């Protein structure tokens, strides 16, 4: 079970980096006038994001995968903003991110009886 959870967490992290990174490249193209090739690369990376989430373990259905991923996305977005854009998260953002990640863990990994 621990191995399955570690694989799942890794997939969430990879999907998050693909979504945020791909979206960032599209942002650079459309909002900052960078090359269209950044937009094309961003679009391809966004497709990879969609594929990565489908690789989650079978015990996680679509709704649970995307709901739990939301918490991971929040944390990764704040980290991206901090590391790439230089925007340090404030205390309310950090508390909210912690709560979102806690919620994501409950949604994805809380034991269920079937």
TrEMBL record:
InterPro entries: EmrE-like, UPF0060. Signal peptide: none annotated. GO terms for cellular component: plasma membrane. Keywords: Cell membrane, Membrane, Plasmid, Transmembrane, Transmembrane helix. It comes from the Bacteria. Coiled coil: none annotated. Its main location: membrane. Belongs to the UPF0060 family. This is UPF0060 membrane protein ynfA.
